[in-house]
Amino acid sequence: MSNLAPSDKAYVPFVSVDNMMKLVHHIGIEPMLAGLADYIEEDFKRWELFDKTPRVASHSEEGVIELMPTSDGEVYGFKYVNGHPKNTREGLQTVTAFGLLANVGNGYPVLLSEMTILTALRTAATSALVAKYLAPKGADTMAMIGNGAQSEFQSLAMKAIAGIKTVRLFDIDKGATRKAAKNLAGLGLNVVECDSAEAAMEGAQIITTCTADKQYATILTDNMVGAGVHINAIGGDCPGKTELAPAILERSDIFVEFPPQTRIEGEIQQMAPDHPVTELWQVMTGAARGRTSDAQITLFDSVGFATEDFSALRYVRAQIEGTDYFQDLDMLADPDDPRDLFGMVRRAAPK
Ligand SMILES: NC(=O)c1ccc[n+]([C@@H]2O[C@H](COP(=O)([O-])OP(=O)(O)OC[C@H]3O[C@@H](n4cnc5c(N)ncnc54)[C@H](O)[C@@H]3O)[C@@H](O)[C@H]2O)c1
Q1: Quick one: fold of 127-304?
Q2: CB–CB of 177/146 below 8 Å?
Q3: 347 alpha carbon to ligand 1 midpoint, in Å?
Q4: What is the per-residue pLDDT for 2?
Q5: Could you read off the pLDDT of 127-178 as tens digits, one per residue?
């Protein structure tokens, strides 16, 4: 009788939501954000190695479902992610995600992971990494506009990586601001709840917009933005979904992840197709300049790019090694004779 139990080759390490949370606490949230930022930076610095394509998006009236693939030639990765701004009203997340890494040599998956939490961590780590390069020197105060699921991660990453000491919170929903303030209490940040976006921006050198609305919104108008600030624009990440008045873009030096994707999805969808932008990987390798003057407005037009998820999965893969923070998932059919897939199915018939 052949053995019907899965072989070693059938198993793929799987990180569930439960294990991701355990891993976060095992490492510590701030060290994990810093560790993720290191991996993300490392991969930006070897940018030219990667397969790059704008993500594959399937749009509907309600939202978007996207696939984000990339490869560094040795490891392949993708993330499945959705964006449905109406979801929170129905008790669901705006963004959920999972992702996979595979061996390029034989195509076998080597990691499957939840990525709803990991996306929040990697988005925040990326924002703070970029702020480290672009924010004005000595920046210690951030306005955090939009206090939903991503907001505490953004705040803590800016503390851990970019030296922020005070966050000034604003959301059109006071309940969201209260939630964020409560969650951030005791974590070493000075947290100020504000009644308007203008109030949140008082004294802030970094302005993060992280709202969710499926439209051309104007979270920041031109007159709100003074000289010398760094804007971290997170929520404009889909065709028809932006947060900034075009006049702000005219006055800013704009930094992006992957221009072909950002021109479709980012704030710059409001500008001419050849509007000048600087690629972040070039700032990180020293090939392009970041902030060049105190008066300059720098804008990170963030949409989230596949390499950041690849880096995040690569980080998780390294961290779970030798721990119990994963399960072996019987995910790959592995017949004794590779060509006898049908025979394997037949032998599994109930007796
Ligand atoms: N760039 C990236 O890499 C990236 C990654 C993840 C999520 N996102 C985007 O970030 C945004 C936030 O995601 P989330 O998971 O925190 O969403 P969420 O729905 O949990 O929170 C959004 C918050 O924005 C608030 N809001 C809406 N309009 C506002 C306005 N005019 N002024 C102030 N607040 C306003 C809402 O009340 C809500 O609390 C989404 O648009 C999402 O698509 C971007």
Answers
A1: Rossmann fold (3.40.50)
A2: no
A3: 51
A4: 52
A5: 999 999 999 999 999 999 999 999 999 999 999 999 999 999 999 999 999 9
- CATH number of the domain at 8-117+307-338, please? 3.30.1780.10
Q: Give the atom of ligand 1 at the shortest distance from the alpha carbon of 85.
A: 19
Cα–Cα dist 303/242, whole Å: 10
Ligand 1 nearest atom to the CA of residue 302, by list position = 1
pLDDT band at 193 (very low <50, low <70, confident <90, very high): very high
Q: Domain boundaries in the chain?
A: 8-117+307-338, 127-304
Task: State pTM to two decimals.
Answer: 0.97
Burial degree of 274 (CB within 10 A; 0-12, 13-18, 19+): exposed
Atom nearest to 148 CA in ligand 1: 21
The answer, yes or no, to whether any atom of ligand 1 lies below 6 A from the CB of 149, is: yes
Q: What is the pLDDT of residues 248-295, one digit of tens each?
A: 999 999 999 999 999 999 999 999 999 999 999 999 999 999 999 999
- What is the Cα–Cα distance from 238 to 222, expressed in whole angstroms? 21
Closest CA to 233 of 264, 267, 262, 261: 267
Q: Which of 210, 214, 216, 219 to mutate to test the pocket of ligand 1 (most atoms within 8 A of CB)?
A: 210
Nearest CA to ligand 1 atom 8: 235
Cα–ligand 1 centroid distance for 47 (angstroms): 28
